[in-house]
Amino acid sequence: MTRKKDEHDVLTRTGSRVHEPEQQPTETTYQYCDRLERALRDYEDRFEGVMDGAACGIWDWDRQTDKVFVSDSFFKLLGFESPRQRLRLRGLFELIHPEDLIQIRNNLKQYLRAGKRFSFDCRFESFGGEYIWMNLSGLPVRDKQGRIKRISGSLIDIDLRVAAFQAQLDSEARFHEAFANSSTGLAIISLEGHYLFANRSFCKLLDRQSSEIVGKSVLEFTYSEDQALTMEMASSLVYEHSRDSGFEKRYIRKDGSIAWARVTSVIHRDQDGMPKYYISLITDLSEQKKIESENQRLEAALRRLQALSTIGTMTSGLAHDLNKLLTPIIGYLDMTLEDLPKESTVRENLEIALESAQHAKDVAIQILNISKKETDGLQMIKLSTIVDNSIKLLRVSLPVGISVERAFETERDVIGADYHQIHQILMNLGVNAGHAMKETGGVLRIRISETEVHLDSFGPNGTRRGQYVRLEISDTGKGMSPETQARIFEPFFTTKDNEEGTGLGLFVVKGIVRRHGGSIHVKSEPGCGTTFTILFPRSIAEAHVSTENHVLDVKGGEHILWVDDEPLILELGKQMLEYLGYRVSVADCSHSAMMQFRESSHDIDLIITDSSIPDLSGEDLALQIHEIRGDIPIILCSGFSAQASNLGQYSAILDKPFSIKELARAVRHSLNMNRQTVQVPSSIAI
């Protein structure tokens, strides 16, 4: 018979004997059939079909011959179209990726010694040279003596499964990386309200390590006033099936500070709709809240600035009215002190009253200095002189229980300064110190020394190298935090109640110091008091020596016309000038002044006029007078000379309120000079 290659003959024989009558068999008949072979071939075909459909191949290794039988499906898995082949075991292993083969060889001996089934996931080289993930499994078969005689196993294609698993791992890795490294805070929270996971951004928000958060209750890091809202929003997600929950809340950082955040949460449910855990997205709102707070502060400051702007339009009139009231008070006190014996028992009381009136005048000056850009009329003054005069007023102004001490460590303390503005610095800092010590009492120390700066420094408080007079004002009060120190010079910033401060005092102080070419520094700690150090450029010139003590000895006989619509000021001016020996005429309006001047233009030697007269301004009056007689000196006497224009037509400017000494000097200067405009300070350094 002719058979296909690798097929075998399987014959079955059937027969019968034929007997003669004499009972002797005469022949035997045999029938061969291949029904068993066909059945076997059908079984093998079905088995190969199953292997192909299952992406599975069969292999069998005979230890005695070292040959491996592999099924056709084995090779089909690897892309080979060859039929069954017999390989040696080494040939089979050569198809495995070298890295995987090392692991298989290291573990295979253990399985074989134990007689256990083994299974390895490894890569096989395909027909195209690419590697395909396969599961190689086998079971050792032993003979009666317990020796391995063969190993039979299977090869299963798991490439798609491995690819899917790897894709899942990659996806989970990417998710974990994105979750962990997100710039937005992310947290997974159990249904019981405990953190299961917290990413870096959320840890940074709380200023804590992940180990300090995971396992802890959400409420532990939630501001007390926001805990009820947090629980309410979590409950709505579970029981009301809300899609998401977004709200703002405050967290407590590690240092106890507050961190604002917006929390958006969703709840993860299983296939049956049962809640499993919360996923929360936490957006840091700290900077936004800081900006909002700053905007609110700026809006409040803008409203106050607008209010001050409104006041600013009234400043001229207010200053004028205030100075009108102060002029007779200061003037009559000054004249009384001139005539009062030095040993008089009431002299000290009157001097304090005069200082208080001068302080009221300084209040008006403080308002004007907010918008004043330059310092005019600087004099060479000993800083110690201003300090001594200011201390007198501070001692009666500070709360009970606060003492004032001074220490002057140098005689070389001459600076170029505006007396009133330096006095204002001392009063502002002194009053602030008193406020810091009002509850406990304490000591206000004022110290003057000299120092030298060797190198230029830059920045907001930069100081150029040179010689300086150092003014230190210290208190033993409650001190300031670094955050407060960083803002004390900002306009409208104050730690006082609204009725106690405007937040402009230190802003004005710093402006005055800068205009004097100096710098100001603060040193303070909570509970340790505060020290302000101010450096003023030291002058090598001698201090201005006032001529006030002998200016009153210069008597004059000239005729002076005084023009003012305030009867008290007219009477005061008349008395002062007559005390100085001058002949005086008065006019309460411009019309009266012009009539008197026209009648006696050559007999009048000097005119003193207010800046604001109802029927004609002081400026217009001066213009009309100069049209008649251009050489006559005119003194402008005003409560706010800074707003006056055309100052060149005046021989001097006398600010209200004024002392008799200031009036005497302005008059004598004007009579001696040919209409040269000077600013007569309203306070004289001694």
Overview of the molecule:
With 686 residues, the chain is α+β, with helices and mostly antiparallel strands. It folds into four domains: 38-159, PAS domain (Beta-Lactamase, 2-Layer Sandwich), CATH 3.30.450; 182-284, 2-Layer Sandwich (Beta-Lactamase), CATH 3.30.450; 293-342 and 546-686, Rossmann fold; 372-537, Histidine kinase-like ATPase, C-terminal domain (Heat Shock Protein 90), CATH 3.30.565. The chain contains 18 helices and 26 strands. α8 (286-339) packs across α15 (567-579) and α16 (590-599) packs parallel to α17 (618-628). The longest helix has 54 residues, at 286-339.
Global outline: rod-shaped
**Strand segment tally:** 26
Tally of domains: 4
Spans of at least 5 consecutive residues with low confidence = 674-686
CATH homologous superfamily annotation of the largest domain: Response regulator
Q: What is the CATH architecture descriptor of the largest domain?
A: 3-Layer(aba) Sandwich
